[in-house]
Amino acid sequence: MIKKSIFYVSILLIVAFISSGFKPHRDLFGLDENEGLSYVFPSQNFIDYASLKIPFTGKYFIGFKEAIAHKESQGKYHKINTLGYMGKYQFGKETLESIGIKDSTGFMNSPKLQEKAFVALLSKNKYELQDYIDNFEGKIVDGIKVTESGILAAAHLGGTGSIKRFLNSNGERKCKDEYGTSVRTYLRDFGGYETSGIKAVKNAQVK
Question: How wide is the angle at C-alpha 93 spanned by C-alphas 92 and 99, nearest 5°?
């Protein structure tokens, strides 16, 4: 009888020990109960995800490019929108040709090429917009604090001409793309990211 009791007690202790390993450790997530935060993910309630900033990559360059990709295509390399813009970052054919890519099919089938194209376009736009970055960075235009990453994001949306017109008019010219998204929105939503590592290249090409 004693042996059986010891056996069952041992089993209960082992089960309790194993179960404790599956409890969420708040310290791992940097959550503080005193701040009113709680661990709720994964959740079956859509509302729990409504205010999340996706993807979770911070303000580094990877965060910048993935945030733009999520906005443009939900990060899908094979997406083509109703206007014919292609890939993860939604490039038009003319833009691709301007950075040396003439094979649209090859572009769509190569995630690596799409990533290179994004950086090349940033380099080209940064060269063309360098004076605007130098002159406007840190200033408030139409209620938005201007940053380099915001300018580059706005140029990706509407071209360098659109962000120039917006800044030159002190925000009075509301430049938008074909879907009605404004360069002001991109200037605001993608401001403050780390893009200083992008080199300004006059005629950047994908090699």
Answer: 95
Label residue 146 by pLDDT band (50, 70, 90): very high
- Name the pLDDT band for 43 (thresholds 50, 70, 90): very low
Could you give the CA distance from residue 78 to residue 58 in angstroms, rounded to a whole number? 25
* Span 27-43, average pLDDT: 38
Q: What angle do CA 92, 96, 100 make, to 5 degrees?
A: 170
CB 147 within 8 A of CB 167: no
Q: What token pair was written down for 78?
A: 């094979």
pTM for the whole thing? Answer: 0.72
Q: Report yes or no: 200 and 114 within 8 Å, Cβ to Cβ.
A: no
Q: Kindly indicate the confidence band of residue 174, based on its pLDDT and cuts at 50, 70 and 90.
A: confident
Q: Are 132 and 151 in contact (CB under 8 A)?
A: yes
Where in the chain is CATH 1.10.530.10? 61-189
Report yes or no: 132 and 163 within 8 Å, Cβ to Cβ: yes
| Cβ atoms 124, 101 nearer than 8 A | no
Q: What is the largest CA-CA distance in the chain?
A: 89
Are 153 and 189 in contact by the 8 Å Cβ rule? The answer is yes
Domain 61-189, second-level architecture: Orthogonal Bundle (1.10)
